[in-house]
Design a protein that fits this description.
alpha+beta, 3-stranded mixed β-sheet, 11 strands
Length: 231
């Protein structure tokens, strides 16, 4: 039995108002993918290629795919041994924080593949991440941490457990006026310590290679690049 080379993404299609699909991981076979795309009337197709798979990358370009970003996965083992002290106040988010959390997502993820795609409006991309934060605030396997001062929320980080031993930062956002002041590092180190305290032994975070600030942040927190792929 032949296995379909891709899948239809119902949620993405409904949200963006266009039929969207995603190619399954692995080498790209152009004629098979294109036949599936036409059969299912797909207007937008995601493909995550291994950075080392040059033939698939070239085949994707020939087929009309466009480069959006380099997905970079950082990894470290837990628990962390170093102590990190900060004066910033951090606490678990509550449902009443949602409006301010959604506000913080606006403009925080401009390096992502969605923002890099000119076919998606900035407004829809902002909505996407606001919905993302709202869902994770409600998930039982996720934790949302927020930082605050006298003016309100200054940043947030969402954490989701991938397995009984592995956890991951899903999103991190910092208020514009707080960027470059060490708050991002404080939030990441807080998550690293808390994850270790919860018994996790593996930690990962995904960012974009074009996001130099996030790349430097993860490295400064002791993480190493484990994998790079191309959207």
């Amino acid at each position: 039995m032949n296995t379909a080379p891709a899948e239809f993404l119902e949620w993405d299609s409904h949200f963006f108002g266009v039929r969207i699909g995603r190619v399954h991981p692995g080498p790209l076979i152009p004629e098979v993918v294109e036949a599936w795309r036409r059969e299912h009337h797909i207007r937008c197709l995601y493909y995550l290629a291994e950075l080392s798979d040059t033939p698939s990358i070239h085949a994707a370009q020939d087929l009309g795919f466009h480069y959006m970003d380099i997905r970079t996965t950082f990894f470290t083992s837990l628990p962390v041994l170093s102590e990190f002290k900060s004066s910033y106040s951090i606490r678990r988010a509550v449902s009443e924080d949602l409006p301010n959390l959604c506000q913080l997502t606006t403009g925080s993820f401009i390096h992502s593949r969605f923002y890099n795609d000119p076919h998606f409006s900035r407004e829809k991309c902002d909505q996407l991440y606001a919905i993302w934060v709202e869902k994770q605030l409600q998930q039982t396997d996720a934790i949302v941490w927020v930082s605050e001062d006298g003016t309100g929320l200054t940043g947030f980080v969402t954490v989701i457990d991938l397995s009984p031993v592995r956890t991951s930062i899903s999103l991190i956002g910092i208020a514009t006026h707080m960027r470059g002041k060490g708050l991002g590092r404080t939030l990441v180190n807080h998550v690293l310590r808390d994850s270790g305290d919860r018994g996790m032994t593996e930690f990962e975070v995904v960012t974009q290679a074009s996001n130099s600030g996030a790349m430097k942040l993860n490295q400064s927190c002791g993480m190493k690049v484990a994998l790079q792929q191309i959207w």
